[in-house]
Amino acid sequence: MVAFIGTNDLQEHLATTRPEGAIGELVRMIGEDFRRWPQFDKTARVASHSPIGVIELMPISDGRQYAFKYVNGHPQNTRDGLLTVTAFGVLSDVATGYPRILSELTLTTALRTAATSVLAAQQLARPDSRCMALIGNGAQSEFQAIGFHCLMGIEELRVYDVDPQATDKLVRNLSAYPKLRIYRASSTADAVRGADIVTTVTADKTNALILTPGMIEPGMHINAVGGDCPGKTELHADILHAAKVVVEYEPQSRIEGELQQMPPDFAVTELWQVLNGQATVRTDASQVTVFDSVGFALEDFSAMRYLEKHVLKDSARVLDLIPELMDPKDLYGMGMARSASAPASVPNRSTAAAC
Amino acid sequence: MVAFIGTNDLQEHLATTRPEGAIGELVRMIGEDFRRWPQFDKTARVASHSPIGVIELMPISDGRQYAFKYVNGHPQNTRDGLLTVTAFGVLSDVATGYPRILSELTLTTALRTAATSVLAAQQLARPDSRCMALIGNGAQSEFQAIGFHCLMGIEELRVYDVDPQATDKLVRNLSAYPKLRIYRASSTADAVRGADIVTTVTADKTNALILTPGMIEPGMHINAVGGDCPGKTELHADILHAAKVVVEYEPQSRIEGELQQMPPDFAVTELWQVLNGQATVRTDASQVTVFDSVGFALEDFSAMRYLEKHVLKDSARVLDLIPELMDPKDLYGMGMARSASAPASVPNRSTAAAC
What is the pTM of this model? Predict the structure, then answer.
């Protein structure tokens, strides 16, 4: 049987662990996996695009375990009361190919995305960073805010969204964190002014110019989360030209990231190289750094490991998703197990069978 | 909520519909989808190989619905009482990206594979075919036997497997079809002798020579099912040179099918062209035809449509795989719904949080 982790299980888990507890442990586990990067069989995700969205499959394996995530991106969904991004995933044994755990990954993706942003910022942002601009106050924004407040020492948040109600919701939810000072900016430029870290997490599937060169100050770290599929970017190309850019998995980021705007020979560094000390990105306090985050399958592999370790209980629900057979070569016998009573030699009339 | 179809639901369905009823309707629905081939967004499946097996993801979309299948292939699994092939799948709406149905596809894959074999044989085999050799008597064999007996008029089955117990099981299971005469052959050559149709459905992940040129007689149709991943073939290359070969989706078959043994310019016909009358393969009764079947995502798309139409009940089990929100931009609020009681400003001690 396959163990199932649903949104209800995640809600129960977060009620005790708190988002910052989950994000903190995910920073550790995602970092653990990025540091053993060469062990993974990696592929750019497989996308099925439509005019209004995308459905993607993100497989990865370390030779012992295999994980994949199904995730969609449909910015117009919110108009109909639906989420822009939903996701679920599976963790399997490579030795047998059998799936072991099926889990919700919508909430989990928001947690692991914030964790990956923090993991990168710990390496790329100035250690004395205390103020973060948060552009885009939608479904992902609280998780980014809490991650950077609780795990990166961010004390002031400068927030902006074209939809004031989204900002209302963000401010309301963050009232649970009284030590975090929140400034409601009148524009993106107003939010970015004076920030140490700028996080962009907007949703429109367009080549937007959320950040322009005039807004960027020396020493800033830009955590660019919202540019994550072809035709969906947030930064002006000149910002990238003037900065040092770090990505998760270069072949995928060239297709989906802010990087899609840049020439093929534009130099970037992969996050695992920074974590392993093979590359140094921030050389001084005036350096501008960009984490061009699109989300990579390894982060979901780590997230599935987290769910198995911290959320899965012995009392977990199980699904008859895969047959259990007495004789593995007798799939037919298993399939017909219920039909003992039915006279096998008299096919149902509804069939066109001549036997 | 996502509707769930488990192996128990399939067992109940087959008890009333019978395998031949399901295979017959699948022949119709798979044919329906192959005939609208240009409407589908097609990709070769994404495989993650290990020394002892493979895990594959098979996505496809017709612009309105999206389906994917997870399937593994681990021939050594039977030694441990596990299935060589297990599978499950999801059917989603392209407009929202939301998954609608999660289903078992292990039993269903055996049914749709047999249906696809019948669909191809209806076009490629001699109409007067009455005798079929069945080489490989494992998990898939009964479904092939029943499909060809009930829907193609096969009256005599000549069966062989290197494992006599597999053949015992096949013969036992087929006793439910008394009109089908079964001959237990002493070898593959003995089984193939005089057959109108030869179906190979063996499991070893090797470049095997199950069929050699000396066994092939004029007018035979070869339904080659077992050669379905790199390094896994069943036919001697000279059989293909001397025959007309039909495949499902050429780019995938070049990688995974019997075709992997042939030069890149070896001519093949795609099944949809035959179904649409754009290509004629059997020109006379002495023609040798080969259906080099590897299994294509379109067949699983059709199978998911079948499950939704014929198996899914109003009483179906539902899973909280995807969150349901009052405010789609308030994922955080949904995630923390259970924590109202917990004092939000006092993070759990277990967290390293500084907030």
Answer: 0.92
- Other beta carbons within 10 Å of B263: 8
Strands A53-61 and B181-184 turn out to be unpaired
Q: What is the ipTM of this complex?
A: 0.91
Residue where the block lists tokens 């059989």? B239
Q: Please tell me the distance from the alpha carbon of residue A171 to that of residue A178, in angstroms, as a whole number.
A: 11
Listed in order, the ranges of chain A carrying CATH 3.40.50.720 are 126-295
**pLDDT at residue number B228:** 77
Task: Give the chain B residue nearest A11 (alpha carbons).
Answer: B335
Neighbours of B338 (CB within 10 A): 16
Question: Would the CB atoms of A107 and B323 count as touching at under 8 Å?
Answer: yes
Q: State whether A21 and B330 contact (CB < 8 Å).
A: no
CB contact under 8 A, B143 and A332: yes
Contact B335 A11 (CB under 8 A): yes
Q: Which of B23, B182, B331 to mutate to test the interface with A (most CBs of A within 10 A)?
A: B331
Whether A327 is a known active-site residue: answer no
With CA atoms as reference, the chain A residue closest to B172 would be: A333
Which member of B14, B15, B348 has the closest CB to residue A18?
B348
A96 → closest Cβ in B74, B92, B149: B74
Judge contact between A249 and A301, C-beta under 8 A.
no
Best of A62, A159, A331 to substitute, by most chain B Cβ atoms within 10 angstroms, is A331
Given this model, what pLDDT does residue A16 score?
A: 94
Tell me which residue of A320, A52, A98 sits closest to A203, measured CA to CA: A52
**pLDDT averaged per 10 residues in sequence order, chain B, 355 residues:** 95 95 98 98 91 94 98 92 94 97 97 98 97 96 98 97 96 96 98 98 84 97 88 93 97 93 96 97 96 96 98 92 87 86 45 65
Please tell me the CATH superfamily of domain A2-107+300-319, with its number.
ornithine cyclodeaminase, domain 1 (3.30.1780.10)
Q: Are A243 and A259 in contact (CB under 8 A)?
A: no
Q: Which residue matches tokens 């089955």?
A: B157
Residues of chain B with CATH 3.30.1780.10: 2-107+300-319
Nearest to B329 among A78, A176, A177 (CB): A78
**B126-295, superfamily in CATH?**
NAD(P)-binding Rossmann-like Domain (3.40.50.720)
Please return the burial class of A144, using the count of CB atoms within 10 Å of its CB with bins 0-12, 13-18 and 19+: buried
Helix (H) or strand (E) holding A46, with range, is strand A46-50
